[in-house]
Amino acid sequence: MLPKVALSITSFIPLYSLMLYMYSYVYIYENIGQNTKKYIIFTIAVIITIQFICTIVVNFYIKSKESLTISENEITFNNIKEDKKAYVDYMMTYLLPLLTFDLDKVNGFYILYTNILIMIFIIINARAENFNFNIFLWIKGYSIYKGTNIDVCDKILLIKKKNFSNIRANYTKYKFVSFGGGNDIYLCKKYSE
Q: What is the DSSP letter of 75?
């Protein structure tokens, strides 16, 4: 469960980065009370700490999946093509939290309310195993594709972009492993001869 939550939290790195900027702006330029300043400092410290820990967990999880040596869990796919709609779906998850953020109303309750709302999104995201687009995966070079398995079911595939040109020519040499614990998202392992 820890990798799922960490993957979900790192999906929200851009949103939390924007929140850190907004909290810092309010702290420096707005006329707010001392208690609110303490809440802002505490929130910034918690956000940075959690994001740092989750980034380490996700990085370790991705490396363990890429270098998995058990071959019984490997699956091959065909009809692999890029899923451009996934990027739009990902950006839509940011709309509601961004609409709730108001610089004029920052206080202890507002900080708590906003972060609880985002944590609800994170938990729903983790339970639904909606990790197909994660900013951390994108930074590591993964893109979102769809492919068909032997049961003729479409699945989401995470493939490093530099590897994709070779997959179309000979997709059987690429092996995928389940990513996130479910059976809907698969990560492309390293090329196997």
A: B
Q: What is the pLDDT of residues 13-65, one digit of tens each?
A: 877 888 888 888 888 888 888 888 888 899 889 989 999 999 999 888 888 88
With beta carbons less than 8 A apart as the criterion, state whether 132 and 86 touch. Answer: yes
Q: Residue 126: what are its φ and ψ, rounded to 5°?
A: -70, -40
Rounded distance between C-alpha atoms, residue 180 and residue 141, angstroms: 18
Structure tokens at 60: 């370790």
Instruction: Provide CB contacts within 8 A for 132, sequence distance 6+.
Output: 83, 86, 144, 156, 158, 185
Q: Give the number of other Cβ atoms within 10 Å of residue 47's Cβ.
A: 20
Domain chopping of the chain, boundaries: 2-188
Closest CA to 149 of 172, 180, 182: 172
3-state secondary structure of 175: coil
The pTM for the full model equals 0.75
Q: How far apart are CA 133 and CA 8, in angstroms?
A: 10
